[in-house]
Design goal:
By secondary structure, the chain is α/β, with parallel strands linked by helices. It has 16 helices and 13 strands. The strands form 2 sheets. The chain has a 7-stranded parallel sheet with strand order 3-2-1-4-5-6-7, with helices on both faces. Strands 10-9-8-11-12-13 form a 6-stranded parallel sheet, sandwiched between helices. The longest helix has 18 residues, at about 350-365. About 45% of the residues are buried. The model has no long low-confidence stretch (mean pLDDT about 95).
Length: about 400
């Protein structure tokens, strides 16, 4: 049946591990909000209890359900609940997000005879950066990948290459990058003054922003060591950090700060925790940074670039391709290189940094516009539902 003959939209159920505040959750929310609802009727199922992103999705008119699994504890009842949900609301496609959802959704989809699309959002499988249970799920999914998913999506070329090397079926991969809302994330000349006033940052002090939850993959330790080195190089800036767990009320985060920075050095930092106004904060930065040692396609980099802000980031996932020549990319786990990149970019004149920012936004518009990314998902779904062969690349 041709798509223009349909009178009812295809039903797509998105199964995701959780609805916290990570990159996968954010991309899912953007996707279901923007998909053509005349062609696709979306709903979301979270394996874990609902997190902050669930309400954002629900506000866009998309139904959200939780299987109620406790974090870190396998619960076979979740499979029963998912089977019951999918039998009561049978979809045309089951789209899964992240490893545990890929496994659960893959098995249930196979039982029910549903087309399943896996969605991988990870590009670091080092034992030091991942739980043993997660790596076990990855190994099992690799073995099942030839029999279960109709297609395997990932959001970076680095992720695709890594998972093929771990045994995933190479011919099933399609790379669809993250997409960015260029209306929400946009330059705002007034943001700098307002944000500086809000956090008592002098108007002449450069502002460097790090948007990242507190997680081993984000490597805040490298960031803090870079701050200390930056000061030793004569660098001058205020640093604004936000993300889940990025607050001194979090004992683990506090310990990381205190083990890396002197009390005097901490005076240049503001710790904001989770924020819902990242677009406003990002537009206020003179420079955005990333210190991660494991990413696939970091949203924070693309969001800052969309706001017209140059980026100094670690070379993880597809960061080098995302940034291009609009900013600086340094090795992961190298605080001296990161501090040097900050010094180099902040030493440029305001006019040069403005041109960098304009080039950064233009690059996001050309390669990672949310509208084009949503269209890629829609095209993929139609290929599967209409029986079209996969496109190469």
């Amino acid at each position: 049946m041709e798509k223009n003959e349909r009178t009812m939209p295809w039903k797509v159920v998105h199964l995701i591990t959780g609805t916290g505040t990570g990159g996968a959750e954010s991309m899912l929310a953007r996707l279901v909000e923007r998909m053509d609802r005349n062609r696709f009727a979306s709903s979301v199922v979270s394996m874990l209890p609902e997190g902050p992103t669930a309400e954002k999705i629900r506000r866009s008119g998309i139904a959200v359900t939780s299987l109620g699994m406790p974090r870190g504890i396998p619960d076979p009842r979740a499979m029963v609940r998912l089977v019951r949900y999918l039998r009561n609301t049978p979809p045309h496609i089951l789209q899964t997000w992240m490893y545990h959802a890929d496994l659960l959704g893959g098995v249930v989809g196979k039982i029910l005879g549903l087309p399943v699309i896996w969605n991988i959002r990870h590009a670091n499988l080092d034992e030091s950066a991942n739980k043993a249970g997660t790596l076990a799920v990855v190994s099992l999914c690799a073995r099942l990948s030839r029999r279960i998913p109709a297609r395997i999506l990932c959001n970076s070329e680095m992720s695709r290459t890594l998972h093929i090397s771990r045994g995933y079926a190479a011919g099933k991969f399609t790379v669809v990058p993250n997409g960015f809302d260029l209306e929400r994330f946009a330059p705002d000349d007034s943001a700098a003054a307002r944000v500086r006033a809000e956090f008592s940052i002098p108007s002449g002090t450069p502002l460097v922003g790090l948007v990242a939850r507190f997680d081993p993959q984000k490597d805040h330790g490298t960031f803090f060591r870079a701050v200390s080195l930056f000061r030793g190089m004569g660098g001058r800036a205020a640093f604004l950090l936000c993300g889940d767990g990025v607050t001194l009320e979090n004992p683990a985060f506090r310990a990381c700060v205190e083990s890396s920075l002197s009390e005097a050095e901490r005076g240049d930092l503001r710790f904001l925790g989770r924020r819902d106004d990242v677009s406003r904060l990002s537009a206020a930065f003179d420079l955005a940074t990333l210190s991660s040692r494991g990413e696939s396609f970091p949203n924070a980099v693309g969001e800052a670039m969309a706001c017209g802000v140059p980026v100094a980031a670690t070379d993880v996932g597809d960061v080098r391709f995302i940034v291009g020549d609009t900013g600086l990319v340094v090795p992961a786990g190298a605080p001296h290189a990161l501090a040097t990149a900050w010094c180099s970019l902040l030493a440029e004149s305001g006019e040069v940094r403005k041109r960098r920012g304009e080039a950064a936004r233009a690059r996001i518009r050309a390669r990672f516009d949310l509208r084009a990314v949503v269209a890629s998902y829609e095209t993929l779904y139609e290929e599967i539902l209409l029986g079209s062969p996969p496109k190469k690349g």
